[in-house]
Each structure stands twice: as C-alpha cells, then as structure tokens.
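Supplementary Note 2. Why include the ligand at all?

Several targets in our set were suspected to adopt different conformations when bound, so apo predictions alone were not considered sufficient. For every target with a known small-molecule partner we therefore ran a joint prediction. The input for iron/sulfur cluster is given below.
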Amino acid sequence: MGLYIHLPYCVHRCVYCDFTVSVLKQEEELSWYLKALHQESLFYARTYPDKIVDTIFFGGGTPSLFSAEQISELIATFRKCFKTTPSLEVSLEANPCSVTLEKLKGFKEGGVSRISFGIQTFHSQHLKTLQRSHSQEQALLAYHLARQAEFQNINLDFIFGIPEQSVQEFQADIQKAVSLGPEHISTYHLSVHESNPLHPILPLEEVSADMYEWVMNFLPSSGYGHYEVSAFSKPSFQCAHNLKYWKLHDYLGLGVGASSYMTTQEMPWGDHFKNTDSLQAYWKKVQEGGSAKGQEEVLTKEQAQKEYLLTHLRLIEGVSLAAYEERFGSSLIESYGPIVDKLLTWGLLDSVKKMLKLTPRGILYLNKVLVEFM
Ligand code: SF4
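The joint prediction is reproduced in token form.
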C-alpha cells in the first residue's frame, strides 16, 4: 500500500488554495502534530498488520516547513510500525522558500528519495496573483540546491490558466523547466470556486485549452512521457505513489483531512474513509482511539467498478479490458457498453488493443467524459 501523510501547515494561505491547510502560528504546533501522527501510525499498524508499504508521500500544506530531523524521525517511525519494501519511494512536497542545502541534505539522508517543488510559474507577476511566497530566483535556487543535495528524482509543479497569463508566458515557464532537466513535470489547470476572488478574472477556456494542447505536444517531444492527465516524466520516473490513486490500489492517509482506500478480506471492493478536517478534532480523536475517521463508505462491487474506471481513465494508457475483467470477474463492456459507444462516436474515447483510452480531445474534455459514467 501507499502511505500518504498530510502535513497541513503553511506560512500563509494562497488565494487559490482549497487544501486542508492551517497557518502556522508557533513552531510547537509541528511537534504536537507529529505526536498525533505517531499515535495514528501505531493504530493503523495494528489494523493492517499484513499490508506492505512501498510508497510514502508527504503532502500538504508545506511539508518542508518541518525540519529534516522531524521528517527523518517520521520515516523511521513508519519503517518501524509497518512492513516496508527495500525500494521504498518517499516523496516530499516542498516550497522553494522553505529549503536550504543543509535541510535538503537532511531530507535525503533521512530517506526522502523524491522531492516535488511547487514552482507554479517563473513569472513574478503571476506568482503575486497566486499569492505564492517564493520568487523566481528562489525557485531556481531550490532546484539547484536539491541537485547539490544529490536528489536524482525531482518534480516541478506548474499551474496554467492564471489570470492575465499569456500562452507565450506559460510556454516560457515550461521551456525553462525543461532546460533545468527535472525527472518529472506536472501541469495543473487553475480551477477555483465561483466565490473565489480569482474566478471573475480567469482567462477564457480557449486560452487554457491552447496552453494544455501545446504542453501535451511539447513535453513528450522533449523526452517527458505523458502518462496521466497532469503528469509527465522521463522514462521510469513516473510517480509510483500517485499511480496508486489512478490504479485504485490501497492507500492509507494519515493526518488531518487525509483520505484512504483500503481493501481487506471483509471489504474486498474497498473501504473509503477520510479523516476529520479540523485540527482540534483530529488531535482529540487520535488521543481517544488512535483513528481520526470522519467519514467512511464501504464500497459495493458496482461502486468499485465505477471508481476503477473513472480513476484509470485519467491515465493516458487508459483502462485494460482484461485487467478490469480480472479484478471484477465481469466485462467492462457489459456494464458500460452504451456509454462507451456514445463516447467512441463523439471521438472522446478510443479503443486500441483491448485498452479503452481518452483521445486527445477526450483529455481536453475529461470532465465531460467522466460525467457520462457517473
Ligand atoms: S503553499 Fe500550497 S498548500 Fe500552502 S496555502 Fe499555498 S497552495 Fe495551499
């Protein structure tokens, strides 16, 4: 299984953010939070004694606000509590302005094997619009420091569709990223709720579509395979942890607001549960019983089939009809034949060598495709 650890603290809240985030007021909160994570790990190590962890992902929030010692101790705790594979992938999300060479070296020595920087854009006016706390110079410096610290697996995150961002500016961001040579690049379309102050000034959908179409051609021609709607990587550098979400494998989320999907003998189609979003309630629940579950839903076979399909369709290789049949003992076409036919006719889906996948147009109109299956 994959282990997701939510570290919710940030120095401030960016205007577009809809993650479970808490603005850090005092350093002590970090060690207090780590104690709760420790308790929660002990609880789940007892609940799932036979599961083997092969990926750990520290997401946030800003995990790099924690010290190298704190992150190393957490990794040691997980290694002690759970069975782990020797080739454990350990990813950590970092904000360019919260790392130093010493800290990055400490993360590496403590077991972090993959670092992911939230660059978003190299243009200072757009960083300002997004209310990011780093500058272009800090982003470049963080990347070079990570190389000095001997990280051989680096991801850079970018956002497109920022108010007043031109197609050329986005292209310049990605070209600059490629010139640095990270192993992985992710590009996310900026989407915010109607009530968000950025909503009225978002660019036209056609502009964002132009950016996305361009990046879908440019990155593969620069050596970055497009393997998921938002993710591109050099060969063999796909993110093993994120693939668990898209392939509907087991993942256990620890920390406030974290989500899990776990299968067991009693729940073969999976149990979805999510921790409470409130830090106080999280702390209290973990102290009382070890788990901080807020919501839970045990999936029926039909629900699991739908989720398997919806998550796999995000992968560029698509969904294998044979693998689907092996997991569920029934044919995908039997369950979804009329919808698949409709999407094939609309040119949004394609069927190649017993794989059902999105066409380039289908990738652009992903939501339209997903809605049809819901
Ligand atoms: S740094 Fe990331 S998690 Fe923190 S507030 Fe900004 S967008 Fe949200």
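The longest strand covers residues 83-94. Residues 2-243 form a domain with the TIM Barrel fold (CATH 3.20.20.70). Comparable summaries for the other entries are listed in the accompanying table.
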